[in-house]
Amino acid sequence: MINVLFADDHEMVRIGVSAYLSSQKDIDVIAEADDGQQAVDLALEHRPDIILMDLVMKEMDGIEATKKIIDQWPTAKIIIVTSFLDDEKVYPALEAGATSYMLKTSKANEIADAIRSTYEGQSILEPEVTGKIMNKMRQKPVDYPHEHLTEREKEILMLMAEGKTNQEIAEELYIALKTVKVHVSNILGKLEVQDRTQAVIYAFKHDLVK
Question: pTM of the prediction?
């Protein structure tokens, strides 16, 4: 079972989404929070596999809650589920350590699929979010150590930016899945990022995507 913590200050949203998710054979909503501070406390107490995090909540917003969770639990997997696509929401949320970014306009089954994919190590971004990242990062390039990547690692990073899974990368490059996983781990380490989402952001930021 994929254990989920759902943080949202709208009770009806929590009830509806939680009911759907708990009806899935592989997902269990083990805790709910109605504000950011409660989300932090429950996350550190239960250590769920996935945290669904709203952005605008009382007491503490989702961005601050995400920061606090990641500071104390760097490997936490947090999916932002919000109505906002504003720049001042998207970038801070991803920079705070969110793994995936979904909109509340998404269908319930899409959120469930995002939970499964994020649990398996992938990062899910709405197309609008990806476009925003690409446009913003290309305007403001930052100097990061991508020159330390090997040619193979750069090639795999490009495929990651295209949204390909490890299995798809292995099939396209005719290499073993285990080899892809080693390369991905090396890429994250060399770029000093925690997950695939941040690696993809890096690729867009440096205009590496052809």
Answer: 0.63
